Amino acid sequence: MENKSNQYMSEAINQAKLAMGLTSPNPPVGAVIVSDQNKIIGTGHTQAYGKNHAEIEAIKSSSGNIQNSTLYTTLEPCNIEINTPACTKEIIKNKIKHVIIGSTDPNPKINGRGIKILEDKGITTEIFKYNETLESTLESYKYFVKYHKPFITVKYAMSLDGKIASNTGDSKWISSKKSREYVHHIRSNSDAILTGVNTIIYDNPQLNVRLSNYQKKHQPKKIILDTNGRVPSDSKSLDSNCILITSKLDNKLKNKLHSKGVTIEYIPTGKNKKIDLRYLPEVLIKYNLINIFVEAGSTLPGELLYNNLVNKIILFISPKIIGESKFVPFGSKGINKMKNSYKPKKIINSSIEDDILIKAWL
After folding, report:
1. Could you give the residue numbers annotated as active site?
2. 252-292 pLDDT, tens per residue?
């Protein structure tokens, strides 16, 4: 029975993955309903903010008798009604017998209360054993609830000798094709891709998800940091899905950006005469962007790190040697003493083809 339980929760996790990038500031949750004959009769995942939660979607999709069934959900069912019905209310109404929960909800309005409401109505509940994949679907949400700040991941690829580009700035391609495909999957799970204006000027990236057989159809917001309004008006990334954050912008460029549907936000400069990154989280949250994926050169990641705004690093190490080059992963200010270095709290190593993949949480 334990293997079956693992199978059902794995399907709920797969459902949660379908919601990633679509639901913020709500959590991406997956749910599965299993009949008393041990057959999956309903599945669902959280819809866009303000629409149905996973449990409601699973109930709606059910093809058999829900009474006496078991609900597997990756997060504790909510007990509050704002834009949608309380999930606990619908679970009780449909006479579901047992609820297996992947993780409790850290939201103080829900934490433990959803479970108590169900148990008070005679519905048995169970907390599923810790699951790394399940927790990864919720890490940005849990961080946001705890700190009211977005969860920021920096990705880069480097050679064996620690360079992210040749001495001419060429970086296509350091990592393998499979690694680059994996990056597109990460993009598809993100609320936004964040980069700096230099990357736009020199690489002119599209900053979108390009995968064959891409089912989710989600395109993350594109966020460009451009202190002095230098972004070329014909850049590929400039459209209605783009937010340009600047400190100064002339009217001619502003009008061109508006004609493309670009949203413009202003943040003052700091002591270094660049956008003061202390105000960045506030702007991102304004647009319900809490899971941020950074793809840039060395300057922006370095400044984010210096401002304690990096939560996670995804690093690809390719079996190539570049030699002399000024392009290293983290620019900006460095440390003077090794004892002051940034130390990850957790590291996971794996590989994709010949590339080494390292995930580090700060």
Report:
1. 55
2. 999 999 999 999 999 999 999 999 999 999 999 999 999 99
